[in-house]
Write a structure and sequence with these properties.
Elements: H1 2-13, H2 23-27, H3 34-50, H4 57-70, E1 77-80, H5 82-92, E2 95-97, E3 100-105, E4 108-114, H6 119-122, E5 130-134, E6 137-138, H7 144-151, E7 158-164, E8 172-177, E9 179-181, E10 186-191, E11 195-200, H8 207-221, E12 229-233, H9 242-250, E13 257-263, E14 270-273, E15 288-292, H10 299-309, E16 314-317, E17 325-331, E18 336-346, E19 362-363, H11 372-377, H12 414-419, H13 425-435
Parallel strand pairs: 11-12, 12-15, 15-16, 16-19
Antiparallel strand pairs: 1-18, 2-9, 3-4, 4-5, 5-6, 5-7, 7-8, 10-11, 13-14, 13-18, 17-18
Length: 453
């Protein structure tokens, strides 16, 4: 069965917990809902009989389902047909298109981030851009699925995007040639001063093993085999496999909770602990910084939250996206499924990242981006999405606002940084911090070690 194959694959690469929809669960319908169903059926009949044009039954039923799920949160959805096909391409990790992560913000298609090395990034598209037209056709007010379907296509074909960039008076016309999007989940390098840099672009299958292999390669490439610091770059990483986020965290932790997942049903509450995937801290004694920004979501926030709470790494950059919910994929027959938010996840200290995200220990702006100030003004996070889940602690918006006091460390302009050869200020600042770091300073704050077993 097609849906069964998707479910088996989805367990590897999507940030969802797979919970079977049992007959007993489906049968538990509140008896008081009867009158409400009667209202729904009455509207259905009246539309069928009196609407100005004939309407097919499947159109009305799909509209009712979509409306029902839209009343919940931005991540719950009904999947069939093309939607399932897009899920399958996401699971395969390869498709032809532009390489964009997008959301629907008040009827507009807004770019969360272009994938690194993608046709979209190479064409100059940036986080915070609004796409208003595709090949001259207005898409504002349409569905996100339709827009995504139009942007995908055969490799080598082109599409013209009309883009509104906050701060620019005139829209931009950008021609982008589609390519095969096959993200390299993990990359690594050794920078000056024997500082290792591991970049995780997505949490697909085997990311934990790939990061371990990258660390071994860094130790081999570093002069003298000595690594003086490690930067784990999770910026613009939208998430992926929950299991892989646990595995990656476990590479650096030797005890304690990594993440907990709590839902209404008993089977939806799960605990994930260190030393269950990997033994020991693979980089023991090495100071570590984790880079995050507003594009770091879900699985990225699990890793950052775990390493921050256990004081294993210094978190640097900008507050993360704030997606602290878990989606379950529930099959509905052979060719349809329900993606439903069923649980929240919590960091080891019991904090929910929903809305608030992970707050960095040291806030470092990306001042090498000439549009940084404008992008910050129009940045999209979970708390900006219509219908998002509310943080259970009731955190007020003003408590999540960034510190507006000018920091003398971050006053250089993008032009001045470029003249100094700095293209990525956040990464540059992290590496410089580690070059000045010793084992007694804040960048290495080891958690309490358990007794040897």
């Amino acid at each position: 069965m097609k849906i069964a194959a998707l479910l088996r694959s989805a367990a590897l690469v999507t940030a969802v917990a797979l919970i079977p929809a049992t007959t007993a669960t489906m049968a538990q319908v509140d008896g008081r809902a009867g009158p409400e169903f009667a209202k729904l059926f009455a509207v259905f009949q009246r539309v069928k009989a009196s609407y100005v044009e004939p309407v097919e039954d499947d159109v009305l039923i799909r509209g009712a389902i979509d409306g029902m799920l839209a009343a919940l949160d931005p991540h719950s959805a009904y999947l069939d047909g093309g939607d399932l096909q897009r899920l399958e391409t996401m699971i395969d990790g390869q498709y032809s298109g532009l390489g964009l992560s997008v959301v629907l913000a008040d009827g507009a298609v807004k770019i969360v981030s272009p994938f690194r090395g993608s046709p979209a990034e190479n064409a100059g598209l940036k986080a915070g851009d609004f796409i208003t037209h595709l090949d001259g056709k207005l898409i504002y007010g349409g569905s996100l699925d339709d827009a995504v379907a139009q942007m995908r296509g055969a490799s080598g074909t082109s599409i013209r995007l009309t883009v509104f960039r906050p701060g620019r008076e005139e829209p931009l016309e950008v021609d982008v040639t589609r390519g095969v999007i096959e993200l390299e989940p993990v990359t690594h390098e050794v920078s000056e001063g024997n500082i290792g840099v591991i970049t995780v672009n997505e949490f697909s299958a085997n990311v934990g093993a790939d990061v371990f292999a990258a660390w071994q390669a860094i130790k081999k490439d570093a002069p003298g085999g000595r690594v003086n610091g490690l930067v784990l770059d999770l910026r613009n990483n939208p998430g992926g496999s929950l299991d892989e986020s646990v595995a990656l965290s476990d590479l650096f932790l030797t005890s304690g909770r990594i993440v907990s997942q709590r839902g209404r049903a008993r089977g939806e509450t799960m605990l994930y602990d260190a030393e269950t995937v990997y033994r020991g801290d693979m980089a023991e004694g090495v100071p570590m910084i984790v880079l995050i920004n507003a594009g770091s979501a879900s699985a990225s926030e699990i890793v950052a939250g775990a390493l921050q709470d256990h004081r294993r790494a210094l978190i640097m950059g900008e507050r993360s996206f704030g997606k602290g919910s878990v989606q379950s994929l529930l099959p509905l027959g052979r060719d349809a499924a329900l993606k439903l938010t069923t649980a929240r996840y919590f960091t080891p200290s019991g904090k929910s990242v929903q809305e608030g995200g992970i707050k960095p220990d040291i806030a470092v702006p990306q001042i090498s981006d000439p549009d940084y100030v404008l992008r910050q003004k129009y940045q999209t996070r979970e708390s900006d999405l219509r219908g998002h889940l509310i943080n259970e602690l009731g955190i007020k918006d003003e408590e999540m606002e960034a510190d507006k006091i000018a920091d003398p460390r971050f006053q250089l302009t993008a032009v001045q940084l470029e003249e100094q050869g700095v293209k990525d200020f956040q990464l540059h600042y992290a590496a410089e911090t580690l070059r000045r770091t010793t084992k007694s300073t804040v960048a290495l704050r080891p958690a309490t070690r358990p007794a040897k077993r």
